[in-house]
Amino acid sequence: MEILRADNLVKRFPSRGGEVRAVDGVSLRVRSGSCFGLLGPNGAGKSTTIEMLEGISRPSAGAIHFRGAPLDARYRERVGIQFQATALQENLTVRENLRFFSRLYRHRAPLDSVVERCHLGAFLDRDTRQLSGGQRQRVLLGIALVNDPEILFLDEPTT
After folding, report:
1. Which residues pair with 66 in a beta bridge?
2. CA-based Rg of the chain, rounded to a whole angstrom?
3. Whose CB has fewer CB within 10 Å in the chain, the N or C terminal residue?
4. Which H/E stretch holds residue 9?
């Protein structure tokens, strides 16, 4: 089953000389249960394409469908996003950060399952300022999973 489809996506930005086409006619299909990645050189439009697929930015032209329907206001409730950098709330523990972010959603995954899935138990009560880089990335993954998303976006997952 197809979970995400993009047809002829275009994204234009104004510039001094007229406009820049950051994305020019990208089409793709992502099947449910699959892992899909965008690869290319700097400036190729990967991040802009992902922002459109995440529902953060609207395409200048083209269409995006989630489970066969155009993106709507409920779409953001159904996706999880691990940004390359997310500001964790300082002076809060990992547990408190997970609770904080989960309250942004109506539908939530049980925090125990997020903790287990991301192996956060050993530092759950640690202030986020005391985390190593790898622990921080695992917390950010946990935050992306707090709403039990149907689709997960990982920005720069190799970091």
Report:
1. 4, 69
2. 17
3. N
4. strand 2-15
